[in-house]
Design goal:
By secondary structure, the protein is of the alpha/beta class. The protein has a 3-stranded mixed sheet with strand order 5-6-7, sandwiched between helices. Strands 8-9-10 form a 3-stranded mixed sheet. A hairpin with a 2-residue loop joins strand 2 and strand 3. It is globular, with a radius of gyration of 17 Å. It folds into 2 domains: 48 residues, no CATH class; 117 residues, L-arginine/glycine Amidinotransferase, Chain A (5-stranded Propeller). The protein has 5 helices and 12 strands.
Amino acid sequence: MKNQKVLLIEPPKLFWFVMGEYLPPPLQLMQLAAMVEQEKDIEVEIIKDKMTALGNLILANDYGAIISPMFSQKTSKKISDILGVEVVEGKISNLSYVGSLAVATNRGVLAHPSISDEEERLIREVLKVEVFTGTINNGSPFIKSGLIANSFGAIAGSLTVGRELMDMTRAIKV
């Protein structure tokens, strides 16, 4: 089995103002990383960046990654080094949170229905798979909000209708 990699992001160490109270930032990230690294063949990398929610900002498979243009060049380079793939900035439907607007596997991509031809071409070239459009959970264009997938299977949200399941099956070939 290939060495697995886990990418974590460490948010800025500022106190957060939540519901009228100041809360310390989550400092258990290093503990989590240490626990995961104890497993065999898992490499953990932590990115220090003001951007959090990596899953909403990165669309990746084993062949490439499309990332939000909000990342710095330094972070972009680190993502490329960690994942071991070409990283290119891009958008979907002219929105920068590419990871929430599509789901990618090594077999295909299901993307927001308003993706432009140029955005679709970029994803196809970088991720080296076909790109299909659709929705999830009875019409939501935020594909990641209702679909978890890899090259072996997928889990769709409970509101997903038959047409969307067919689009998903066609796109990611599960």
